[in-house]
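> @MW can you paste both from yesterday?
MW: sure, first one:
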Amino acid sequence: MENILIDKQDNVAVITINRPTKLNALNKATIQELHDAFKALNEDKEVKAIVITGSGEKAFVAGADISEFANFSVENGGKLAAEGQALLFDYVQNLSTPVIAAINGFALGGGLELAMACHFRTASDNAKMGLPEVTLGVIPGYGGTQRLAQLVGKGRAMEMIMTAGMVDANTALNYGLVNHVVAQEELLDFTKGIATKITRNSTVAIGKAIEAVNANYVDGVDGFKVEIKNFGACFGTEDFKEGTTAFLEKRKPVFPGN
């Protein structure tokens, strides 16, 4: 891995995008490395939650690497968006392991799109977020037009995209774009603290909950039916047996994860 760092401690993995001279901008190599990392961590039974952040104090991810696509054709542009969404952004959204974005500075363009693909977000008090693609004559292509509207509402999403403006951390908190805002020096420990709380619960149930919540945002899918199916499926798991037994025995559960 040339562009990211991975640290695993106590069932929590931290992925750090490490391109500080480029403000952690996403290029094709970094997107591929992130996909590979998420895939490996999702298959690692010891990892029960993932935090993703950026190196340094300036940026989470300041955008995509524009130099890679400045001369693309219509066909190449569509392929770039389709492949990127499948390889990373949709992949992260549908990962069964919880993913939290710790936004430690600028999250612009593809950076905000990556953060929005995560299951939820925290931010440092100096963070700035936006989708400035229209200043380049293009639109967000990694799910930004869809996820931003889902998170903050159509009107706010339209304004942010059309003005290419940035919002600060407290505005993002007010919009529901992030769940928490803390001082930058506290961000990673604070976010890892939330991740640790998640690791105490059933990984099987959490994965099924992620699938059920996501189903509400898929055209043609009845999220209630997915919830009913996944609720029923939980009854056949060892985690359910352990969770209910521990409750009745008045002790803390030790979930086997199956």
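MW: second:
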Amino acid sequence: MTAAGDPAAADNLVAVVAALGSAAAFAVSAALEQSEAKLEKRAPPLDPRLLLRLIRRPRWLLAWVPETIGTGLQALALSFGPLILVEPLLITGLFLAIPLAAALNRRPVHRRDYAVVALGGAGLAAFLLAAQPRPGIAQPSVAGWLGVALWAGPVLAVCLFFAWCAGNSTRAVLLGVASGLLYGIAASLLKALTAELSFDPAAIFARGQTYALLVTGLAAVILNQNALQSSRIAVPLMAIAIADPAVSIAVGVTAFHEQIDTSGVRPWIMVCAGLAMLAAMWLASTTQSDIRQSPPPSRNNGAR
């Protein structure tokens, strides 16, 4: 049956095209951002002064044009297709970001970067296909959000602690995971607020979730730029691309009471897929960085 005669197939086709367009837009944005972020002195994680320096760079500001386009296309893709279809397609943008970043930075393309991205992307696709997350409630309770904070907070703290003194590639992976974690939580907060927008738009300004979204989103952007400073572009972006949907599923299960399919061999597939993603992150952390190592910031020699 053709897409024209099958509404579901037609929706999936729109989702695929939008997701691939979003991946390409994000790739251009990331390459432009990384070319500028690496020129700045390495900043401590979550230091807002890095953004204040970057907004003075025209190329970095230009990167937000494709970033905005990519976000819109991602939202369109998710409105027509499921997470398990859209998210693996988004990671394909890294195959474009790698040569773009190499050209902007006037550095050679490394084949190892493609291998790392391919392994991580395959693991993510297998995990999402096996998990088959199913919808839950529209509005999590306060206890649900507190439950998210109880596991997300320690994970974020551990990533930031070890990133403080780690070498470039390991630092990029840890900050990428931390950034992806915050992006996943921000997406979950946005999902809850979007449900309320449909019947009482003004009420979102009285919700703590709105201000949590602003803080979380800003922190994610700062950590993203921190990660881009530390290594070749494939390393942090691969970590972000894996952590973001994984955290979204974890929040969905713990706060939105969504369910994943654990029948048959699916749990074993998810375990193997998780190991593949961890292996990709380990390989990325052992990648030799072509960005000059700078000493970890301290109180005396911190960022400008």
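> thanks! The two ends are 61 Å apart (CA to CA).
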